[in-house]
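User: Can you fold this complex?
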Amino acid sequence: MERLRQALAWRWRQVNRAQLWLLAGLALALLPHVGRLPWLLILPAALLLGWRLGVELKLVRLPPRPLRWLLVGLAVAATWVSYQTLLGREAGVALLVTMLCLKLMEMDRPRDVAIVIGLSYFVVITVFLFDQSLLMGAYMLLVVALLTTALTAFSRPEASVPQRANLRLATTLLAQAAPLALLLFVLFPRIPGPLWHLPSDATSVGTGLSETMSPGNISRLSDNDAVAFRVRFAGDTPPRDRLYWRGLALTHFDGRTWHNPNETRRDAGAAHSFDFTAIGEPLRYTLTLEPHQRRWLFALDMPASAPPRSTVSADVEIIARDSVKTLRQYTLLSYLDYRLGAGRAPRQFTYLRLPPAIAPRARILARQLRAESRDDADYVQRVLDYIRQQPFYYTREPPLLLDDPVDEFLFDSRRGFCEHYASAFTVLMRAAGLPARVMTGYLGGEDNPLGDYFIVRQSDAHAWSEVWLRKRGWVRIDPTAVIPPERVESREDLERIAPAYAALTREAPDWAKRLWRKAGYGWDRVNNAWNQWVVGYDQGKQLAFLKGLGLKGFDWQRMLGLLFVGLGLVVAIIALQLFRRRPPPGNAVGEAYARFCRKLARRGLARKPAEGARDYAARIIPRRPELATQIRHITRLYQRLRYAPSTPRDGLRHLQQAVRRFRP
Amino acid sequence: MKNHAKESLDTVVAAAGRIVLGKEKEIRLALACLLARGHLLIEDLPGVGKTTLAHTLARVLGLQYQRIQFTSDLLPADILGVAVFDQDSGRFRFQPGPIFAQLILADEVNRATPKAQSALLEAMEEQQVSVEGETRPLPEPFFVIATQNPASQIGTFPLPESQLDRFTMRLSLGYPDLHAERQLLAGEDRRDLLHGLAPVLDGAQLQALQAEAGRVHAADALLDYLQALLALSRQSPHFAHGLSPRAGLSLLHSARAWALMAGRDHVLPEDLQTVLPHVVGHRLQAAEAGGDAQRLVALLQAVPIP
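Assistant: Here's the predicted assembly.
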C-alpha cells in the first residue's frame, strides 16, 4: 500500500503540469453544467476526464481507434436519447461537452491541444447561455485564467519554467487583454434586439408564474425569494399597495383551474383598438425582467403602451414575440387610474362562461346577493362585504380542496391564498352575470434603500379579479384586500396586502437582522448594476454612454471606426510597454535610474547604453549645469545602491523620491 | 582607511610623475597592475622611458629591482640562477639569478629564444622557481615588467598569445607631449633625479595594499556586466577566440585596484571600462584577416551596462 502510494506520488511529480492545468480548467468549466445536463452525459464526461488523468499517471492507456469511434457513436446516441435532437441550446452544449471530453482521448499533438483549449474556451461561453449573473462571470474568469495558464504551460514545456511563472504570464496576458475587452464591450455596435435567437428549447421550465392558476400554485411561490424583476421609477414611487404588476389574464375555468385558451391570444398579433381613457399623470419606469422562459411581460396596471417586439392581447396582457430567455429591459408608461373598455360590453361567451356542474352553492349565494343589490356595483360591494364579514382567513397553508374547490372554499374551509379568493370571487361575479376575469401578476415590491429601485420577488406573486361594470369598464377588484388584518396569518402577507396596518404593528428588527437585510440590499444593488450596465448594455445605453462622453450622433460605422482606433491605440500602448527596454524585474534600483535616464532622454540627453552612470553625469552636467546637484545626488545614490557592499538605509526610497522630483 | 590607501597611492603616483613626465595615466595603470598582483607588458619603441618607468616604480615603492636584458643567447639559468660547487664546504651552493628580486624589468623579452622566455613566464605564473630539483619561492611582492619592441621584428621570437595571456596588462607609453618633452629637455638628468628619490612605501605596505585591493567589493550588477563583456567576445563572429577566464579575472582584479586607487570600496562599471583596453588589447585577435584588435576593443566598449 505504502509502495503504491509512493509510486503514485512519484508519477504525480512526473505528470506534465500543462495537462493538469488543462484538466483542472476543463473540469471547472464543466461544473456549472452539471445540474443542467442529464447524468447520462455528465457521468461519461467525468469518466473521460478521469481517464485522461489516469493516462497522465501512466495507470491506463488511451483507447484504441475502434473504441474511440464506438465512444463517439455512444455519445451521439446518448445525446439523442436525452433530447431527441442534436440541435438547440441544451442538446448542442451537451454534444459539445461530450465530444470535447472524447477529444482528450486523442490529444497527443500540439494541434490537438490547441483544439481542446479552444473548445474549452467555447464551453465557458456556453455557460452564459444559461446564467449571466455576476458571480458566474467572476467564476468563469477564473476558469479562463486556468485555461490560459494551460496554454502558456503547453507552449513552454521546459521543466525549468516554474508553474508560478506560467500562472503569472497568463494573468499578465489576461490583464493586457482586459482593456481590449472593455473597449470591444463598450464600443462594439449593438443592434436593437438580440444578435441571435436563442434556440427555443421547450424543455427548460422557469420559476415564476405559470400559464394557469389552480388552488396552490401561487402559494407555492410564497417562499421563493428569487427576483422576478426590478423596477426603477423615473419620478415618485407610488404607494406599495397600488403596485399591481399586471401579468396574465385568465378567462376560462374548468372548476379547478383557470387558464387562457390559445384562441384569445392567437389574435395577439392583431392590433386591438382599446377604449382606453387615462386619468391623471402617467408613471414612467424601467423594468428589468429576469428570464422566466415565457412570453409574457409584466407592467404596472395599466400600461399605456407595449415595449418593442411585443404586442398587447385583447385582455391587455403584454406578449413578447419570443420567450424571455435572457434579461430583458423595457421602459413603459402606466396610469394608475384609467377607464378601460367602458363603451362596449365584452363578449358574454368568454367572460360569463362557467362549467355547468360546478359550485351550486356559490350560484345560489350569487343569485341571492344580486337580488338584494341595487346594481352591479352594489353587488360587487356586497360580495366583498360577505368576504369581510364571514370568517375568511388568509393563509399560506390552505386545506386541500377536493371535489369542488370554489364551494368548499367559500362555505367550508374559508381559508385560502390569493388564488382561492380571486377564483371564488370571479366565479361569484360570473354567476351573477357580471363579465369577469382572473388576473395574475405581482403585488407590491421591496424598495432597495441603497439603490433607488424596487425589487419584485416571486414571493410577491398575486392574483386578483377584473370585473366589467357598465359605464366604468373593467375594474380591478382585489378580494384579498378586504380581509381584516387580524385574519392574515403570515406577517409577510400582511406587509403586502395591508402595509399601512402592518407598519403599525411592526416590531423593530434587531441589529443582526437589520445588518443582514442591509447586506442583502447591497448585494442586490451590485447585481442590479451588473444587470443594468453589463447584461443590459444595449444600443440605447451605448448611445447614452457615448453621448455622456460628448460623442453625439454616432452611427454604427463611426462607432466601428472609433473602436478600431481605440483598439489600435491600446495595442500600441501595450506593445510600447513590451518593447521598452526594462531592467530585469525586481530591480527597483535599476528601474528608478532608468526612469531618471528617460526623463533626461526626453530632453535630448539620452544615455548611451554602454555609458556608466558617472561618465553620463559628467557628460550631461556641462549641458545642464543648473541640474548638477540633483544629477550628482541621483548618480551617487544609484552607484552606492547598485555597486557598493553596504547600502544606506532607505537608500532606495530616497533614490525613487529624488527621481520623482527630478524635472529636467 | 580607503582614503588612507588613496592618499599613499596618490603620493606614489605624484613621486613617480616627477621622473616620468606627462604619463600619469600610464603610471596609474602600471600601479594598478602591480596592486592586482599582475604583470605588465610594455610595448613601445626604445627610448620612450620604459626602463625609467620600471626603475622609478621600484624606487618609489621601495622594491628590489633587477633588470634582465633578453638576448638570443640568453639561457634559462641566466635568469633563474645556477648551483655552483663550493670548494670550502664541498657542496653545491645555489647562486640565485636576477629573477630573485621584487621588481624585474625583462627588457626586450621577444629577443630571447622561447626557452628563455618560458623560464621567465613560468616564474611569473608560479611565483617560484625550480632549479636542480629544488623549489625556491620568489620574493613578495613579485612584479615583472616586460618590454617588447614592436618595430623591429627581425630575429625576434614574438610571444605567442598563450604567453601574452599571462600578462595582466599591456601598455604603450608613446611620445611625451610638448610640455612634458620640454621639461625633460630642460630639466635635470632623470637618472640623477631617480637616485635622489626616496621610497614612499615599503614592500610590506605594498602587500597590505594588494590585500586591500583584493577586498574591494564587486557587486552582482558589476559581475553581470563583466560576464556580458566576456560573452560578447565569445559569441561575436568578429573575434577569433573569446576572452579566457583568466582574462576575466585579470579584468576584475585590475578594476578593483583601479577602484582602490580612486578611494572607493566598490567597483564601478567605469573602472572596468578604464582598464579594459589595456587588459584585453593583447589578448584579442580578429577573425578576419587584417582585422584590428582596436576594433574589437571598441566592440566590447559598446556592450550595454546592465
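Chain A touches chain B at residues 583-584, 590, 609-615, 639, 642-645 (CB under 8 Å). The mean pLDDT of chain A is 83.
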